[in-house]
Amino acid sequence: MRSDCTALTLRWHLTIEDLILNQMRLDESASFTHVTPGQNCRMKIQMQNQSAKIVAHKSKLDFSWVIGGLAAVAFYLVLPSIPLDENFKYRYFNSHWIEHCTVALFFIGLAILGRKLLNWPSERGVLSENILDGIKFDPQSDSSVVAQLLREHIQLTGRRYQSTELFRRIETVCGYVISRHTAADLESHLSYLADTAMARLHSSYAALRTITWAIPILGFLGTVIGITMAIANVTPEQLESSLNEVTSGLAVAFDTTALSLALSMILVFATFAIERGESNVLDQIEDFTVHRLLGFFPVEKSSEVSPLLAAEHDVARRFLDQADILTRQHLEAWNNTVSRCREQWASLATEQGRSLAGALSAAMNEALSTQQQLLQQTQAESRREVEAMQASFAENLSLMQQQLAESVRSQLELMHQSWKSASEAQSSIQHQFTSALAGTIDAVQQNVSTLAGSLQDVSTHSLAQAEALERQTIQISSLVGSSQQLIQAESLLAENLATLKQTQTLEETLLNLNAAVHLLSARAHHRAA
């Protein structure tokens, strides 16, 4: 659709140019009827020379693409010596062929802008100099004579500005006046030349606009290629080993996009500034031609027109009217076609949006339902596992309580038996000690009484004393044996006291165990609740 509209626009421009050329030929043929054959031949030669100059000017070769390509090659040759991070230079300039193409297009765009920027000094210089000063002519002279003098003057004084737009504009105006032998309708012709120059300026930026359009497209292409590489390199079985390849693909995607967007922004702003400057130059040229150039040509009174010339003008006017009608019809058809295309695109976009929204909503609903089912299943499994864990924990807790109770009961029984045996042993030891002590005391008393009787009889009965001493020795030896028994009873009593202390320690341990059992039971009941 876009190509059809472009072809239709070009066809309209060609039709309008053909109409203007036909009108100029008719005017020239009419003007040739009033000149001599020598003048006619001279004017034809001048027009041919002027046409040859214009064609030669338009056929200048544009080496901006070659210069831009060479600049890109030079940039890559100088890139290793630029003091930047090597990782940065590799990521944004050498990691993928899309980055090479993006940089090449960027330098081509810079070359085109540089060629336009080089023309600024001459364009502004010819505007700052008054190249029309010093021209002398008779105010009563014919317009063609004035145009011839003006052409000769600018060819002498403005030779170094022959490549400027103002010089070409003055040359074109002089050729127009010389060919028509009149300055009538010169103001409309100047407006036509200004419009043509503006259109030519706009068309000169077509390649640059294409480049600024293509650079972001290359970035998006790099994004697609990088994401495709990342997705293609993902292997769920070897996720860790393929992670480096995935990240390298994503790096290509984002690096190419960032580079293209940055370079396109630079080109867009530079293009805007230079195009604005050139349009200002064209506006100044138009003001110069309107305010300075029109003053050199006097306003001529309309002369009598021959019937043939009037008929030709009438035919040309009718032809122009028909061309105007045809142009309007084409414009209406174009507007209708564009509106229909817009409506079709809008309806198509709406339908696609609806279908996409329906598909997305269906997919989201299905995914949400599947997720809800999975969540419910997971919740049920978790609930069952928690219940099983609680049951097993309760069983283990009850079993542990039973084992602890049995162990505590057995320990208590053992401690009771030990306590009972210790009490019996202590009572028997005390009884033995008491009986031994009483026997010892009786023996001592008997020995003392015997000793007293023997002492009383010592003086009288020495033999009896010896026997008494002998008996006393026997009794003392028995007393020593009783003392040893008393020492053994004391040691047994000390052992029994130590056993009692151990029994008290065991009772404290059992009390602590009982408290721990109660604490565990309370926590188990709390978790079960």
Automatic annotation (TrEMBL):
Main localisation: membrane
Family per record: Belongs to the exbB/tolQ family.
Membrane-spanning segments: 63-84, 96-114, 210-232, 252-274
Biological processes, Gene Ontology terms: protein import
GO cellular component terms listed in the entry, alphabetical order: plasma membrane
Keywords: Cell membrane, Membrane, Protein transport, Transmembrane, Transmembrane helix, Transport
Name listed for the protein in its UniProt record: MotA/TolQ/ExbB proton channel family protein
Lineage top rank: taxon: Bacteria
Signal peptide span: none
Membrane topology classification: Multi-pass membrane protein
Location within or outside the cell: Cell membrane; Membrane
Species, as recorded: Planctopirus ephydatiae
Domain (MotA/TolQ/ExbB proton channel) ranges: 178-284
